[in-house]
Amino acid sequence: MAVSLSPPIAALYRQVIAEVPRLPDIGRMVFERGTVALQEAIASHLARWSEAGALRIDDPRSAAIAFVALCQGDLGIAYRA
């Protein structure tokens, strides 16, 4: 969370959001290489732990999305202030 909420990354996201209407591929690229990549990495870990019997997770991808959202919480608001 420290990396994804750092000032340079927050500034990148603000710039991307501003440019998406004009350059939609930029938004898609940042989403796929940032958000989706993080979710997939976490889903992979969760799946391995589930296969090892350490966790019971029916859908590692959905669990990863929820986990990232829970970790972020309202931190984005706190860092903007």
Number of strands: 0
Count of discrete structural domains: 1
Which residue ranges are poorly predicted, with pLDDT under 50 across at least 5 consecutive positions?
none
Choose one word for the global shape: elongated
Average pLDDT rating: 88
Keywords, separated by commas or semicolons:
81 residues; mainly alpha
Task: Report on the architecture of this protein.
It is a single chain. This protein has 81 residues and is mainly alpha-helical. It has one domain. Helices cover 74% and strands 0% of the residues. It is built from 4 helices and no strands. The protein has helices spanning 7-19, 24-51, 60-72, 75-80. Helix 1 (7-19) packs across helix 2 and helix 2 (24-51) crosses helix 3. The chain is elongated. It starts with 6 loop residues before the first helix and ends with a helix.
Q: Can I get a quick summary?
A:
The protein is mostly helical and 81 residues long.
Topology:
Elements: H1 7-19, H2 24-51, H3 60-72, H4 75-80
Helix pairs in contact: 1-2, 2-3
